[in-house]
């Protein structure tokens, strides 16, 4: 039996809907259904009554949830206790951040943490948004720093995973300048001469946002896909080499834009705003996190 199966059942009990529960657990509906079946196989009884709409727990399912919730809390507390020897001594916090924000925004945030909390140790990991959300939900980090946008929302239960909005970033189409300081490639391009695009790999958050920005541009853009990568930092380097237009977070290309090494390929476009959000888990027993969160809440209110 896997502990995450208990969280899956608790999500179904809360939402009474497999689809919504899957969103809260950051998995597909089919994966969630398989995991619930596996839990029922382990328990030897049906825990969910699938003959009703919305779905309901069986009597055994309600009993399992009541006792499983307490058992899960006890296991999390035990795990935290056991991990103390493996964690940094003193005041510490574990942070997982999206690849771009771990380089651009997080160092500044850690500086703010030091001002708020004095001497503070941090362990930082970077990951894509899906893996970061899983790490947070499974208690493998204290804080998660990611981008958010209404057209690609992070569907975490706000009661279990409260968040703070720390600011905004802007996704802009940029490219290297020509000898006169003008864009080497200008949008929207022409059908007979499409603009080379330096894009993001399929399935990435910034890839989704890149497509939203293109669709929201208000005109048909003529592009041809020249290069793909997972990370914005890589695309900055490709754009600097004059290979095409990349939709980059302003924070990732701030220095290059300020010095004129990169310029906006469509000056009339306002860019796509991205929220910078910090999430925590309510179940974390890290006292440093709890103190830090209270001060952050006061600072952004």
Overview of this protein structure:
The chain is of the alpha/beta class and 301 residues long. The protein has helices at 3-15, 18-25, 29-43, 59-83, 99-104, 106-117, 129-137, 205-215, 232-240, 254-259, 287-300, and strands spanning 48-49, 56-57, 92-97, 121-126, 143-148, 163-175, 195-200, 223-229, 245-249, 263-264, 272-280. Strand 1 (48-49) and strand 2 (56-57) form a beta hairpin. Helix 1 packs across helix 2 (18-25). The longest helix is centred in the N-terminal third of the chain and has 25 residues, at 59-83. The radius of gyration is 23 Å and the shape is globular. The protein starts with a helix and ends with a helix.
List the helices and strands and how they pair.
Blueprint (H helix, E strand, L loop, with lengths): L2 H13 L2 H8 L3 H15 L4 E2 L6 E2 L1 H25 L8 E6 L1 H6 L1 H12 L3 E6 L2 H9 L5 E6 L14 E13 L19 E6 L4 H11 L7 E7 L2 H9 L4 E5 L4 H6 L3 E2 L7 E9 L6 H14 L1
Parallel strand pairs: 3-4, 3-5, 7-8, 7-9
Antiparallel strand pairs: 1-2, 5-11, 6-9, 6-10, 6-11
Helix pairs in contact: 1-2, 1-3, 1-4, 2-3
The global form is: globular
Class by alpha and beta content: alpha/beta
Total number of distinct structural domains: 3
Oligomer: single chain
What is the number of E strands?
Answer: 11
Q: Strand portion, in percent?
A: 15-25%
Rounded to an integer, what's the Rg over CA atoms? 23 Å
Query: Which CATH architecture of the largest domain would you pick?
Result: 3-Layer(aba) Sandwich
Mean pLDDT: 87
């Amino acid at each position: 039996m896997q502990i995450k199966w208990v969280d899956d059942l608790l999500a179904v009990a809360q939402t009474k809907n497999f689809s919504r529960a899957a969103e809260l657990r950051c998995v597909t509906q089919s994966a969630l259904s398989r995991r619930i079946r596996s839990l029922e196989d382990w328990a030897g009884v049906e825990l969910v009554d699938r003959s009703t709409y919305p779905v309901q727990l069986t009597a055994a399912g309600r009993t399992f949830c009541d006792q499983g919730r307490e058992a899960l809390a006890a296991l999390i507390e035990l795990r935290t206790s056991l991990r103390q020897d493996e964690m940094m001594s003193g005041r510490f916090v574990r942070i997982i951040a999206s690849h771009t924000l771990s380089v651009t925004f997080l160092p500044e945030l850690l500086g703010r943490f030091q001002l708020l909390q004095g001497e503070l140790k941090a362990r930082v990991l970077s990951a894509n948004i899906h893996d970061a959300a899983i790490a947070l939900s499974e208690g493998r980090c204290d804080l998660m720093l990611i981008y958010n946008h209404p057209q690609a929302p992070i569907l975490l239960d706000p009661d279990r995973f409260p968040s703070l909005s720390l600011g905004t970033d802007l996704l802009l189409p940029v490219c290297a300048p020509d000898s006169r300081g003008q864009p080497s490639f200008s949008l929207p391009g022409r059908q007979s001469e499409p603009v080379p695009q330096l894009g993001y790999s399929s399935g990435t958050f910034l890839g989704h946002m890149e497509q939203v920005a293109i669709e929201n541009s208000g005109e048909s853009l003529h592009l041809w896909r020249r290069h793909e990568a997972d990370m914005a930092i890589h695309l900055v380097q490709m754009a600097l080499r004059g290979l095409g237009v990349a939709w980059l977070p302003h924070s990732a290309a701030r220095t290059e834009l300020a010095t004129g090494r990169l310029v906006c390929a469509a000056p009339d476009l306002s860019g796509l705003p991205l929220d910078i959000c910090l999430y925590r888990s309510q179940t974390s027993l890290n006292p440093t996190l709890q103190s830090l969160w209270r001060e952050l809440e006061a600072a952004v209110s």
